[in-house]
Amino acid sequence: MNFDELFEDVYPGLYRYCVRLTADPDAAEDATQEAFVRLLDRRVQGDFAGLRAWLFKVATHVIRDRARVETNRARLLQAHPIRPASEEAADDVLERAERVAAVRRALSTLDERDRTLLLLREEGFAYRELGDAIGVQATSVGTLLARARRRFTEALSEGEEK
Amino acid sequence: MTQHPVEGTLQAYLDGEIQSEPREAMERHLEACRECRALLASLDDLANRTARALRVVDREPPAMEAARWEARRARAAHRSRSHGRRVAVAASIVLLLGAGWVAAMPGSPIRRLWEGDAVTQDRIETLGPSVEDSLDQGRTAVSVQLEEGRATVSIEAAPSTWIDVRLSEIEGVRVSAPAGSRFETGSGRIQIDVGGLEGDVIVELSRDAVLADVFVRGRLVYQKSGVEASYLGGTEAETRDGSIRFPAGGGP
Question: Is residue B201 packed enough to be buried (19+ CB in 10 Å), middle (13-18) or exposed (0-12)?
């Protein structure tokens, strides 16, 4: 598998996954890049699906190992307010920032396994791959996924009501 | 299917994870069971609401080209840190070339007057302790690390890559390549052909190298003339944020 093709196909989704997982674009960029660097460095071989799963797994580990997820989330909310697009009105910016904060709070109510499962599924991983990623049988994924989505959306609704 | 499927099975059905036969049984059940249809609809709604909510968080990814460049650069930095260990296991040769050989080479590229911006030795030494850069050459990545006046040109070589190093008097040039690569040496010249292999070819040029050119597949990628070093292939180096940056070029 050509590195450049793999990079172009996987990078946007992996970065999006990392942003969602960390709530920190800088940390997400670091983790995404680190995964690709390790892929290059270790000369990992495989087909597209296998390499893609490997990259997501490594990025997840990178984020976990750095143990900065919660810190980053809090830091992000304080130190990285959403930068307004030039034509965006201040009210729009504020509203968007509030929506982003609400989603992040809802995500933070999930335990790590459910959060990982939910976010990986959003990137289109199959149940077998999801099971491998979180250490459960593929047959359990549907139940866990439905539960995680329900918890997430309930937390989101509760946050909006407050 | 007479029993109601559990929620996880319905979720799997919704996600296209149920194979053909049980899938057909599930569809027959759904046709007949309003309760399960309602549950399926609610699961679908949960999935849609989740996806919509998460999109709020998304940020534009960094520019692809810059991100790819960063990955290469980071790898070059990592590679240079572990370089000593790799050299120990790679087939490695050290070639010492006598002074003045290259002067006899007609048409030698190192006799040319080079054009374009170059990085001076003084600049290299003040930039330290380590400056790395990389340039994609099609499927072959080239990176240059400048440290304490030394230049390490690392070529992540795809099969069939050949590298030419043209040299004048040099106290020490170290070249390492994947085991099984073919080396040819001549007057002021080292050629490395990785053949069907792939791996790292590393050319280390000491600070005392007066004239040196490194070609990858016939394309000049790095040259040094006296106190000036340039990374070429039609690009000019620029300094930015305390490092030297080389815009990525086209294929070889």
Answer: buried
